[in-house]
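Per your request, structure below.
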């Protein structure tokens, strides 16, 4: 049973993996990254998330290995706390309360019981680098109020701070200034580059900094694409610098190798550049990484690199510049035009991804499964270019069909519109283009929906447009003498007094089609396409439209732009009830009669769960998010929950997800992110020490079951057990494999 008090709104995924530089474990087996309020621990070999370190109350802004113990990890956050973790077991060891916002974290092996953080003092744009003394204590929470000033007037980004020559000095860059603080001499040297912003295509401003690990050499990146190598900077008059230039745009990040023999750089070209011996002529490239490189990390062992990219992914790269693993998070597109959809086959979340693509995202593992290229055109990264945009998408026939709409418009009279119908190919396990329709409407398409009724014989798709029409598309035989084929064609065109068609949806049994024309809702017979009735409340244009389900299938719901929610009875053709509610999201649960509506107020977003048969909500939760919620979706559960409270039973069969304006993906849950990790992911840590022999896969999991009772219980729920008659499972599986080899089966 689930306790009522345990239900809460949690961040379930979609957080940025590229907010800060990734950090490797000492043995390069794991890579750590900040992700919203959490720290995620990934295996570099399998790309699996093996732990989620949860404990901070605000955005995590920095992570570093403990130089005194490489099995421990420090983290800092906007909540003003520094936490020490055992990342192998996922356990919080200690919390140091600093008390002010922490923007970045640095550690040094030579710094006794101290770490370095970036804080802001008084003015919002004035940041300082300070040293924080971490007191020794047996208690788990300790106040760390002893701060020592190091540098002033610095950039808040950790890419603009670097420690060099085994901690002898620290370099900081901001605007056109380079500051170097020497710890032993306790002196600061400052260097200035002349501002050349008034010259065409010339920008000298600093963008990032890296320091040689064993020499007095500082590398700085600049807005003009140049890299400057500074030497003799202990003397403000005798300093020198040399330039390396390959990047055509600003240098996003720099990193020296562990020995300092090479320098890595990256930027908007999506190319990792390795400058060997810091020479202009001696450079190697790893191109076509897919998106802007925002951060570069080097493992302590020196065998792996990690690049973080603007499309929310991390790439693990071997020392020979070969990519070995890709950890892809939820791609943050500029606009989510398609809304949130669920792929009926994979239960993956589907929405806009990188330009011109649909991304299929696993909600269980919090990582991207794959991208589907819809526009099938090379993306050109030019800010002034009008791109083709994927604006609509819908699944039909239990995932057998996918409809997409893409558009491009430079001027009001130059609209390019294309609709594509994709069929699922079982052999390739993917979607294949079946039909392409150029200019299916004369104006923008506002909505599209399939008839997903169980008894529907012929697949049917409906599109609505600002041109005042809705069109019905059906699947027809398109065979010729060469091959058998099917294709989509327009079967019916409907309109209502030249009003713009804005929304459409089918009833659960597919017998009725509802189409809204601005303020008016029309009901059509899906057999004859005859207009049956109309509803008009004069409460504003219809923003959302949906039919009730199961026992509430006789109701139709509509939400207007003027903040009125209407419920019509289809049997009496009259208004059943209405409520004043500014609905921004309205989603029906496919497994029950429940409907979730999210309204927007000055305080934030509020959730209302109700059934169309009665206006009284089953559940209300205020302020589920401080920002605007733009999309929502119900995801059917594989295993139903067992909420006992009547107010929470709407979550038994399906889980509700919603996406905010900043593209944070949230849900209602009773589990922490660590508890939601699959047993397989957790098992990776325990199985690292087992030899990968042919009998490993037979004996290994049983040995682990004897060592970990909790994992055993989880595995029983997840794995399909073979019919065994022996008391020792490992022996039984071994005998089973041997019997198959000789052609006999022993039971």
């Amino acid at each position: 049973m689930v306790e009522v008090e345990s239900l809460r709104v949690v961040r379930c995924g979609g957080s940025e993996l590229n907010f800060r530089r990734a950090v490797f474990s000492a043995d390069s087996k794991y890579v750590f990254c900040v992700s919203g309020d959490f720290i995620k621990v990934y295996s570099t070999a399998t790309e699996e998330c093996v732990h989620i370190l949860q404990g901070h109350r605000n955005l995590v802004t920095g992570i570093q290995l403990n130089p005194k113990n490489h099995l421990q990890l420090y983290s800092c956050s906007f909540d003003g706390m520094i936490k020490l973790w055992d990342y192998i077991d996922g356990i919080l060891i200690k919390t140091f309360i600093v008390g002010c916002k922490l923007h970045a974290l640095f550690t040094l092996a030579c710094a006794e019981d101290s770490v370095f953080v970036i804080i802001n003092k008084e003015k919002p744009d004035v940041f300082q680098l300070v040293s924080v003394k971490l007191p020794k204590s047996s208690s788990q929470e300790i106040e760390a109020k002893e701060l020592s000033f190091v540098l002033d007037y610095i950039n808040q980004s950790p890419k603009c701070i670097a420690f060099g020559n085994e901690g002898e000095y620290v370099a900081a860059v901001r605007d056109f200034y380079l500051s170097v603080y020497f710890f032993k001499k306790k002196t600061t040297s400052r260097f200035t580059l002349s501002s050349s912003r008034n010259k065409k295509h010339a920008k000298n401003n600093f963008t990032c900094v890296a320091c040689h690990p064993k020499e007095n050499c500082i590398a700085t990146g600049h807005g003009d694409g140049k890299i400057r190598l500074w030497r003799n900077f202990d003397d403000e008059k005798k300093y020198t610098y040399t330039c390396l230039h390959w990047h055509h745009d600003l240098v996003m990040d720099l990193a020296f190798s562990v020995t300092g023999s090479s320098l890595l750089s990256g930027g908007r070209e999506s190319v990792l550049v390795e400058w060997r011996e810091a020479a202009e002529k001696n450079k190697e490239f790893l191109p076509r990484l897919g998106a802007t490189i925002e951060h570069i990390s080097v493992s302590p062992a020196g065998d792996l690199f990690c690049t973080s990219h603007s499309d929310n992914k991390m790439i693990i790269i071997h020392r020979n510049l070969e990519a070995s693993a890709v950890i892809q998070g939820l791609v943050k597109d500029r606009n989510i035009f398609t809304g949130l959809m669920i792929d009926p086959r994979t239960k993956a979340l589907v929405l806009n991804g990188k330009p011109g693509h649909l991304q299929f995202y696993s909600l269980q593992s919090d990582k991207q499964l794959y991208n589907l290229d819809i526009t099938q055109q090379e993306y050109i990264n030019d800010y002034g270019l009008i791109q083709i945009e994927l604006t609509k998408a819908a699944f039909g026939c239990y995932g057998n069909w996918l409809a997409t709409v893409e558009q491009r418009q430079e001027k009001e009279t130059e609209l390019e519109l294309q609709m594509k119908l994709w069929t699922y190919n079982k052999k390739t396990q993917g979607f294949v283009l079946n039909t392409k329709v150029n200019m299916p409407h004369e104006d923008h398409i506002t909505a599209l929906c399939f008839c997903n009724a169980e008894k529907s014989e012929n697949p049917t798709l409906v599109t609505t447009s600002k041109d005042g029409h809705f069109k019905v598309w059906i699947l027809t035989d398109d065979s010729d003498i060469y091959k058998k084929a099917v294709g989509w064609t327009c079967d019916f065109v409907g309109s209502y007094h030249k009003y713009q068609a804005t929304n459409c949806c089918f009833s659960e049994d597919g017998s009725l089609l509802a189409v809204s024309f601005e303020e008016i809702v029309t009901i059509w017979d899906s057999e004859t396409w005859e207009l049956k009735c109309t509803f008009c409340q004069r409460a504003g244009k219809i923003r959302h439209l949906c039919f009730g389900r199961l026992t509430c299938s006789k109701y139709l719901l509509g939400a207007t732009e003027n903040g009125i929610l209407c419920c019509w009875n289809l049997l009496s053709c009259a208004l059943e009830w209405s409520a004043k509610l500014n609905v921004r999201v309205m989603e029906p649960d496919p497994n029950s009669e429940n409907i979730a509506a999210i309204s927007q107020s000055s305080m934030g977003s509020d959730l209302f769960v109700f059934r169309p048969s009665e206006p009284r909500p089953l559940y209300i939760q205020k302020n589920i998010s401080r920002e605007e919620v733009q999309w929502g979706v119900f995801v059917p559960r594989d295993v139903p929950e067992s909420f006992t409270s009547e107010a929470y039973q709407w979550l038994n069969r399906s889980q509700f997800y919603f996406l905010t304006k900043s593209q944070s993906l949230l849900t209602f849950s009773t589990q922490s992110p660590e508890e939601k990790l699959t047993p397989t992911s957790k098992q990776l840590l325990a199985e690292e020490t087992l030899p990968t022999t042919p009998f490993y896969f037979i004996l290994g999991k049983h040995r682990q079951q004897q060592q970990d009772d909790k994992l055993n219980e989880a595995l029983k729920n997840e794995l399909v057990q073979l019919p065994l008659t022996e008391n020792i499972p490992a022996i039984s599986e071994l005998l089973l494999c041997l019997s198959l080899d000789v052609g006999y089966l022993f039971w």
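The first strand starts at residue 8 and ends at 13.

Regards,
D.
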